[in-house]
Design a protein that fits this description.
Layout (H helix, E strand, L loop, with lengths): L3 H20 L3 H16 L3 H11 L3 H29 L14
Length: about 100
């Protein structure tokens, strides 16, 4: 699988969408938030760390100590944006998913 975030979205996107609709929350925002959160986690994934260590010749512990802060910052930024879009500006993300179904 090329990218875990995209693969999970492809595999479980419909399930997330149906669950969000049943819970009465925005399905577009739910699946988008999941994809953005997986991008934040991709920074510290073992596969990405192994590739970065091989490319730079850095030890994995040293690299992880340098990168984890950026992953947490990105994750917090994603969470803040999703909360803002869900509660402060709820109309900014469309809720109608009928156009998304093929």
């Amino acid at each position: 699988m090329l990218s875990l975030g995209r693969s999970i979205t492809v595999l479980f996107g419909k399930l997330q969408q149906a669950t969000a609709v049943q819970l009465g929350i925005n399905p577009v925002l739910t699946t988008s938030g999941n994809l953005a959160g997986s991008a934040a986690g991709k920074l510290i994934s073992p596969q990405s760390m192994a590739i970065a260590c091989a490319a730079t010749g850095t030890a994995s512990g040293d690299l992880f100590r340098k990168i984890w802060k950026y992953s947490v910052i990105l994750l917090v930024l994603v969470i803040v944006l999703i909360v803002l879009q869900a509660y402060v500006m709820p109309g900014i993300v469309p809720q109608d998913v009928s156009g998304l179904n093929p």
